[in-house]
Amino acid sequence: KMEEFLHLTQLKTSLKEAVLLDYYTAGFWWAKEMNFSLTQLSGFMDLLNFALENLSNKHMTLGENLKELERAMSGIGKTDSEERGDPNFFSIEQAKAIIDYLVISLFKHYKAYEYLFHGRREEPVISNE
């Protein structure tokens, strides 16, 4: 289902697509194990996508991406969100767990992801030889 949702068409031959499928699938199952509500799950997947898009499309450095993540998560834990009963609200503990997850899944491997998205790879030459 994730393959269809992400519109991955070359999964068997594209390392990039295989990595993206693994990244999003692992994140989805982690969030399910955290017992996030459907709205929280959606918000978490948006954060995963946000961090990856900052790297892949905006060519942000690790430091820039961390600053953007901080801005994106800066409203978490505010009391007015609790009073409104905002379903997007993550508790402080959940926010810390999300940050830990992003560090382990993406930021510790940032150079590898940079290479995946921006590294120059030569096309293999296929011949009769």
UniProtKB/TrEMBL annotation:
<dbReference type="Pfam" id="PF14769">
    <property type="entry name" value="CLAMP"/>
</dbReference>
<protein>
    <submittedName>
        <fullName>CBCO1 protein</fullName>
    </submittedName>
</protein>
<dbReference type="InterPro" id="IPR032727">
    <property type="entry name" value="CLAMP"/>
</dbReference>
